[in-house]
Amino acid sequence: MNKVYASADEAVADIPDGCTLMSGGFGLCGNPENLIEALHRKNVKNLTIISNNCGTTELGLGILLANKQVKKMVSSYVGENKEFERQIFSGELQVELNPQGTLAERIRAGGCGIGGFFTPTGAGTQLTEGKETRMIDGRLHVLETPLKADFAIIHAWKADRWGNLVFRKTARNFSPMMCMAAKVTIVEAEHIVEPGEIDGDLVHVPSIFVHRIVQAKNLKKWIERRTVRKQA
Predict the structure, then answer these.
(1) Residues pairing with 154 in the sheet
(2) Which pLDDT band holds residue 79 (cuts at 50, 70, 90)?
(3) Which residues contact 217 (CB under 8 A, 6 or more apart)?
(4) 78-82, 119-123, 226-230 — which is least confidently predicted?
(5) Residues 153, 186: contact at Cβ < 8 Å?
(6) Whole-angstrom Cα distance, residue 8 to residue 13?
(7) How far apart are CA 188 and CA 168, in angstroms?
(8) Are 223 and 183 in contact, with CB atoms under 8 Å apart?
(9) Is residue 221 very low, low, confident or very high in pLDDT (cuts 50, 70, 90)?
């Protein structure tokens, strides 16, 4: 039952080219930095990434984008990344935009085995052209389908060796849903403890949805870089 791996590189070693990957995080909050850097070193290509955003030009998932490792992004917010903008307009990057709540619910549906759901969000706009619609209570709704992934990379505040997870504040964001919606969930945790050391009432994700755990190291580099940049 010990799911702890020796390194982030070892944990992502079998992620292949062309797979679908979910990545937790909201902006750079709750970003699985160590696992992203391991994927960058591995140089896996043609990834379809499901994540709220694609980091910034130099940080987070942005380093994979800059290295031409991403084929398609399924996202909600795509600002703060000049390389993202450049690749969209050059035709190098496919993008599927979603309203933020819709993105969250599509991921949740994927993890819960729900075949789809109707929502009024975006109905009648270019964002939902070609999708099935239905009038419900006098209001137009659009059918949204579930999202699933081959792998999910997640940042947690605490994990025990069996895989029970606890998140800290807003760093929780999309991560619990992604753990459920992926075939293989890989977690980097700030603190790894023994089974029984986490109060069961505090567990946000039970171990059944977690497959690999690594120790998170050298975190919050982006805060240091931004501070230096502002001071300069």
Answers:
(1) 187
(2) confident
(3) 34
(4) 226-230
(5) yes
(6) 9
(7) 13
(8) no
(9) low
pLDDT number for residue 220:
65
What is the spatial distance between Cα 96 and Cα 94, in angstroms, rounded to a whole number? 7
Q: How far is residue 147's CA from residue 127's CA, in Å, rounded to a whole number?
A: 17
Residue type, 17: D
143 contacts 131 by C-beta, under 8 angstroms: yes
**If you average pLDDT over residues 146-175, what whole number do you get?**
96
pLDDT score for 158: 97
How many Cβ atoms sit within 10 Å of the Cβ of residue 1? 8
Q: How does DSSP assign the chain, residue by residue?
A: ---B-S-HHHHTTTPPTT-EEEE--BTTBT--HHHHHHHHHHT--SEEEE-S----SSSTTHHHHHTT-EEEEEES---S-HHHHHHHHHT--EEEE--HHHHHHHHHHHHHT---EEE-TTTTSGGGTTS-EEEETTEEEEEE----EEEEEEEEEEEETT--EE--GGGGTTHHHHHHHEEEEEEEEEEEE-TTSS-GGG-SB-GGG--EEEE--S--HHHHHHHHHHH-
